[in-house]
């Protein structure tokens, strides 16, 4: 059954809720365990601001998971998932600004991605067990200092600046991630477009592979790679990640 989990500030209070037909209901209990639907808090439009949908211990990221993107950046198609990490301090919410670190970089890029939210502790699981480890899915923007990525020869600095991992606006469970439309819009113009059926490594393989490297904890995030069409942003630009069945993640560059 499809469910939508949201963390937000509504009527002056921080709340974790369930969204049904545009109404936010208080989630009573544990999003990762037992919970019930509490009283209505108001409509989604009444939320004063959104919070990151989770507070992960880590964001495990996958590079070059679309063939067209690997070709675009001139790198070989990986034979196994190419992994890197983004720090939890890079995570921000729908509506929060992405801060351009002009003191250290001259090119910052958008990257639209599907994010997987881990629902229970898992280690060394097989692909067939992966679905039981997943709470749901949300939109992600793997913001990247492209010049530093090329300069450093590895990706930690370029991917790790504060605000470089927008997530949201909510988590959607009960959907099939295997063929979702995904796009990035920059100032209203579509600049990336693909479907998750074009993944080199599907979600179940990614969860399994990563869990054999590191233990995944409830609330951890896996971002699954970006399609072709990456490009730079400047201060004042509006970035929107849109994913079928989930919604729109919007952040302004400042």
UniProtKB/TrEMBL annotation:
Keywords: Metal-binding. One of its GO terms (molecular function) is metal ion binding. InterPro entries: Fumarylacetoacetase-like_C, Fumarylacetoacetase_C_sf. Pfam families: FAA_hydrolase. One of its GO terms (biological process) is carboxylic acid metabolic process. Residues 58-253 form the Fumarylacetoacetase-like C-terminal domain. This is Fumarylacetoacetase-like C-terminal domain-containing protein. It comes from bioreactor metagenome.
């Amino acid at each position: 059954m499809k469910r939508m989990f949201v963390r937000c500030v509504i009527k002056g209070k921080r709340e974790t809720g369930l969204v049904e037909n545009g109404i936010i209901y208080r989630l009573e209990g544990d999003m990762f365990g037992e919970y019930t639907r509490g009283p209505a808090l108001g409509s989604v439009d009444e939320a004063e601001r959104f919070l990151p949908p989770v507070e992960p211990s880590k964001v495990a990221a996958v590079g070059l998971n679309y063939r067209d993107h690997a070709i675009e950046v001139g790198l070989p198609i990986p034979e196994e998932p190419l992994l890197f990490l983004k720090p939890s301090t890079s995570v921000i919410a729908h509506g929060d600004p992405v801060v351009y670190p002009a003191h250290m970089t001259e090119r910052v890029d958008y990257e639209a991605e599907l994010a997987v939210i881990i629902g229970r502790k898992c280690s060394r699981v097989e692909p067939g067990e992966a679905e039981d480890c997943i709470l749901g899915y949300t939109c992600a923007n793997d913001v990247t200092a492209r010049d530093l990525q090329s300069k450093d020869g590895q990706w930690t600095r370029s991917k790790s600046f504060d605000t470089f991992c927008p997530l949201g606006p909510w988590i959607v469970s009960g959907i099939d991630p295997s063929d979702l439309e995904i796009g990035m819009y920059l100032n209203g113009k579509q600049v990336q477009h693909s479907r998750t059926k074009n993944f080199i490594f599907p979600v179940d393989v990614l969860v399994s592979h990563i869990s054999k490297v590191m233990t995944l904890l409830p609330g951890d995030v896996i971002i699954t790679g970006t399609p072709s069409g990456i490009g730079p942003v400047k201060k004042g630009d509006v970035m929107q990640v849109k994913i079928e069945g989930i919604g729109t993640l919007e952040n302004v560059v400042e």
